[in-house]
Specification:
globular, 3 domains, binds pyridoxal-5'-phosphate, CBS-domain, Rossmann fold, 4-stranded parallel beta sheet, single chain, alpha/beta, about 450 residues, 13 helices
Amino acid sequence: MSDGVYDSIVEAIGNTPLVRLNRIVDGSAATVYVKLEYLNPGGSVKDRAARAMILAAEDAGELRPGGTVVEATSGNTGIGLAAIAAARGYRTIVVVPDKSSREKIALLRAHGVEVHVTPGGRPAGHPEHLRSVALRLAAEIPGAWFAGQYDNPANPEAHRRTTGPELWAQTGGRITHFVAGVGTGGTITGTGEYLKEISGGAVRVIGADPATSVYGGGDGRAWYVESVGHYLHPETETDEWPDSYHPEIVDRIERISDVESLTVLGRLAREEGLLLGGSSGTAVAAALRIARTLGPEDVVVVLAPDSGRSYLSKYFDDDWLGRFGFPLYGPANEPTIGALFDEVAGSTLRTIASGATVAAARELLEVAPVLPVLLQRSASGPAVVVEILGVVTAASLAGAPDDAVVTEYADAPLPVVGSTEPVRRAAERIADRPGPVLVAYEGRAVAVLDGARIIAAATNSK
Ligand SMILES: Cc1ncc(COP(=O)(O)O)c(C=O)c1O
């Protein structure tokens, strides 16, 4: 058979192109290539791990004809598994967190997958945690097999066998730096191990991690770019890292904020013609930082896991970006919350951790009687909007015993508007909930505004 003709999609996975970055490298002397994993049949790097895990399970007799594939995933592994399972006659059930993009969930359903959406932010071991739900389903369904990408050795092995050798061959052995994000760790571990071995230890392996992720030394607080990093719920008793991740293979980790990932993502689309997913923005941001420190002989390869098509309703959507106070993709062309209200700049909000006592909350409210106290999962630092559990005021605590846990007396979270959001759009969204609103800047709560003032400002600007 000639090149490029395959018996099934199983053989069509891998051998993705490397494309050089030309316009966003900002004068770096090093060469930077992006490996375009969205060109796999299932649309992401995860096709590689999905294929390896299914083939290994068949070999081990764990997955038999007519069986059911079950997985916990932010989406892409499920899509890869579903495509391969369909071609081999298996049914697929996937458990996804509710922060997965609408597009990924729709893609899973389009592949005939039975999708279970679980609430995000549950500690490991909680019965509603992604993995617990998937394990329960796998135990209940006859003939079911749990893929378990976080601990399945076939995941990193797929990259040792395919991604690593491809990069070595495509660069003619000239690759000096490999950059990738870390989710399960399968990509960076397998590819990194292969490249180190074949180069006699010369290739440097760089992890690209969301700034607050635990992998890179962050406190585990939430972030907005999907599918990479390691989140730490404050109620997690023992923090376990996936077996698929071998941290000792990583020479350094670059910590990248959401806003840096999103800015690079926009530049990739507009200046390089590459419409990529959020974790590609994180990885390329890290690669650009590294490239700035290197010379003309250096060849940096950064792996881009998937396409921006899966995130059109998030990272490329001004409504989503504006709501969290991220820079808009297009120009606002009208007054924004941040431009109109001076309070948004430099304000510090009082927060209290979800496990604190009513007495501790009362003490805080004495210092700031007019400001509600935000109840957040984490103990200190700026409150991540998606982690704010509620609001506490003196009134909501009236009659509560001092030693009670504050969470039990909290009022519902406030509506959120973004600092970059057009005032008119914010007013529309809060119209049915007058009263105080939270203002988000780059995903963090920075101020409380009177909603009536936003509505009045929108009316006056008409
Ligand atoms: C979009 C995206 N980026 C990055 C990753 C992380 O890759 P790995 O799990 O191999 O560390 C994943 C994994 O699901 C992904 O779907």
